[in-house]
Each structure stands twice: as C-alpha cells, then as structure tokens.
Amino acid sequence: MVLTNLISGEDATVLFNPETIGESVNVNYARRKFIGGGFEHLHFMGRSNRQVSGLRFPVDTHFLSDDVAAQDILDFMRSLTEIDPGTGSPPVVGVTWGSVLDVQVVVTTFGVSHRMFTEDGDLLAFEVTLDVEEFSDTDASADQYRRGLI
Q1: Which of 49, 91, 96, 115 is a plausible cystine mate for 134, CB 3.0–4.6 Å?
Q2: CA-to-CA distance for 90 and 108, rounded, in angstroms?
Q3: What is d(CA 58, CA 78) in angstroms, rounded to the nearest whole number?
C-alpha cells in the first residue's frame, strides 16, 4: 500500500495484507410524524463520508531495505496527524492499494504498538493502526487544499 501526504508530496510504501477491511457509511434520515397517521415518514437528510477503521501496518526492519529506517516510517505515519501551518489542519492522505482502495482520506485515529527493540533501545518492529475518513470536498481539489486555498 502506498500512503502519500498530499500536502508535502512525501510518500511511503508499507506492508498491508489484511484478512478483512471494515468500511462504513452512515445514512441519515429525519422522522416526520403525521397527525392522525399511524406511521412516520422518513426524509433523507444526507450521508457521511466513507470510513475505514483498523487499518494495520506492521513494520519490521528485517523486511526493510538498508536505506530505510523503521523510525523514518514511524515519523512519516505520525506526520499524517500533524497540523500543517499552511492549511491549519492535518494533511489529506492519498491511499492506494491495488484496485481495492484509491481514495483521499484524513486520519481520524492513530495508534502505535512498539514491538521489538535493540539492546540500545532502537526500534526494530512496530505496528501502526489507523482509522481514516474519506476526504470528499466536491467543491475543492487536493491541489487547492495543498495550496491552502480551502
């Protein structure tokens, strides 16, 4: 899977091969009661953006090339939640994984489990868990967002 910070243009390829991917969309209706009627009319109010929860990314130095450090990947993943001074919000993230996911999202939850260290305390293995929500501003493009125009 490739994750791209659409503000900085920085990207990272991370291992990703889940057994399942949980995806949800909330559809909202208002209930309208009619006087003398024994029923409620449902009136469509809108829908939420697509949400994907529990994306797990294991990182182990045994599977990294020599020029990539586990700490660099962790720093990149953390940067996806940091506020960009130019936009005043965390970045929009491009997520590409085969034909299953090719969306722009924002990270709504970030978690990390540190799993293995060297004797000196350097990080050898960890797992990042992300919850994301689809970024779908129909009035603006990622380029406008990146330039701080929205």
Answers
A1: 49
A2: 10
A3: 14
